[in-house]
Amino acid sequence: MIPPVLQIYVALLMDQLLGDPRWLPHPIQLIGWFATVLERFFRAVCSSSLRLAGILTVTLMVGTTAGAVICLLQVTTHVHPALGTLCGIIIMYTSFAARDLWKHSIAVYKALNSGNLEDARHKVGLIVGRNTTDLSEKEVARAAVESVAENLVDGVTAPLFYAFLFGPAGAMAYKAINTADSMFGYKNARYRDFGWAGARLDDLANFIPARITSFLIPVAAFLLGLNGRNSWRILLRDRKNHASPNSGHTEAAVAGALEVQLGGSNIYFGKVVKKPTIGNDSQQITPRHILLTNRLMLATTILATLILTPFSIIIMCTS
């Protein structure tokens, strides 16, 4: 039997080698389908209180996801311990997205590097929510850097954090929370009340992982020969210059490491949204900064794995 810590290592390695498992029925798709069913049901049952409907939806989403993983692991382990181990590794593997973040951002880099701005706009539009049809080369590169910096937590270090603490069930429960926020966490008429629970729970679930990640980014920057000191300085100064209580931390640390400025105005659904800037524009953002951000992501992931391993071993020994 492979020890739990090594199972996480294997899952991370699988993500790096294989990326998103298109050849497997992805658990997130199943969670999304279940969320849609629950939304329809609780909107009908709790029509007088959409906030309550949202709370019940998210509670069942997360509880059912964690319970299903625990049951699956118990059944497969009963059949054969090796089968249970394999299922746990695959579940955690599907919760990580470092390879996909790298792949999508590199596609933007390659398009920009070849001078195909139209293709770069299209490719960056696949990973950001803003309108990309009129973005300049600098704005496309900024969008890609911001996407990797922000998604480093929910795509890599947060599921890693919960995998180390609670195993495959923890990693997948986190992804259920993340899915609830991505599906319902909109500040529009339909989801302002219904999506409240998903958005708040996602903020809470990301609170510790986002801060651990942001503290590790300056260390990763130093190891990569980037500006680790400036990364720390901008993190402390600009971490709150973001609508999210968590995303600003990693974006600020990345902006400082690269000595670039993130944030600013973007167009969403035809409307200009002005956001505070993060970092100083000591350097103009270029496609090369996409590559550097990816290196920061990978180095930070390695550091997070090394930092979290002892905690996992302590939990295993005391349980």
Q: Secondary structure elements and their pairing?
A:
Layout (H helix, E strand, L loop, with lengths): L3 H15 L8 H19 L4 H30 L1 H15 L2 H16 L3 H8 L12 H48 L11 H28 L4 H11 L8 H12 L3 E2 L2 E3 L2 E3 L3 E2 L9 H31 L1
Antiparallel strand pairs: 1-4, 2-3
What does this protein structure show overall?
The chain is mainly α. The protein has one domain (4-318). Helices cover 73% and strands 3% of the residues. The protein has 11 helices and 4 strands. A two-stranded antiparallel ribbon has the order 1-4. The protein has a two-stranded antiparallel sheet with strand order 2-3. Strand 2 (266-268) and strand 3 (271-273) form a beta hairpin. Helix 3 crosses helix 7 (137-184). It is globular. The mean pLDDT is 93.
Strand percent estimate: under 5%
Shape: globular
Uncertain residue ranges: none
Number of domains: 1
- The topology string of helices and strands comes to HHHHHHHHHHEEEEH
Major sheet:
2 strands, antiparallel
Overall average residue pLDDT: 93
Tell me the number of strands.
4
Distance between the termini: 18 Å
Strand order of the largest sheet: 1-4
From the helix content, strand content and strand pairing, which structural class follows? mainly alpha
Question: Count of helices?
Answer: 11
Q: Level of helix content?
A: over 70%
Could you tell me the radius of gyration in angstroms? 20 Å
